[in-house]
Amino acid sequence: MLLLAIDSSGRQGGITLARSGGNELEIIDSTSIQGGTFSAELIPQVADLLGKHNLVPEQLEGLVAVTGPGSFTGLRVGLTAVKGLAEVLKIPIATVTSLEVMIAAGDGKRVVMAVLDAGRGEVYVAVQSNGRDEMLLSVAEAAEMAVARNLQVIAAETSIAAKFPDAQLATHSSTELAARVGFRKLLAGDAVDVLALDANYIRRSEAEYKIKK
User: Fold this and answer.
1) H or E element: which one contains 46?
2) Is the pTM of this model over 0.85?
3) Comparing C-alpha atoms, which of 158, 157, 160, 137 is closest to residue 148?
4) Do 183 and 59 touch, CB atoms closer than 8 A?
5) The domain 106-169: what is its CATH number?
6) Paired strand residues for 96
7) Does the pLDDT value for residue 204 go beyond 70?
8) Mean pLDDT across the stretch 117-129?
9) What percent of the chain has pLDDT over 90?
10) For domain 2-98+172-201, which architecture applies?
11) Are strands 62-66 and 93-96 parallel, antiparallel or unpaired?
């Protein structure tokens, strides 16, 4: 299976091209894209990455989309590109959240809690043992949970990592991890329909936030 993973959820996005041999996935190549340039650079970068390895889009057999939480604009650009490719090529899509990618960066020694800055003194949180159960908590609530459950905290931002004892800063290539997580989902038949593909924002609506305040 020739696989393309796309992540446009953060300040820096990326694309990874990978190929499977049975149940194993080999990363062929990856490239990064700066946030703010997704709309202009994403499709050309996909074409360049495929062309670099003498491949064409018609050879792709699966797509992996990172669905957030993250930048509203960036996610729209990335998911639109994935939908377009899936519709034209008639290939399956696996979705991976930004927090799932961070959890995949854990060392396997402790249960992982991934935390991602949500602004307003809050963080997006996912705990490894809870599968795809993701939530929005205050920093204090998340820190209390981490200590109470002896969780290995992985944070995407230095400012957030500093708020958790012994937190690990995520320094991985997100699309390569996303490709691996998404590949396992595709093997298991866990794909989403093009029409059902949507961003995972998690955050409450502005109205709900004002009610809480």
Assistant:
1) helix 38-52
2) yes
3) 137
4) no
5) 3.30.420
6) 66
7) no
8) 91
9) 74
10) 2-Layer Sandwich (3.30)
11) parallel
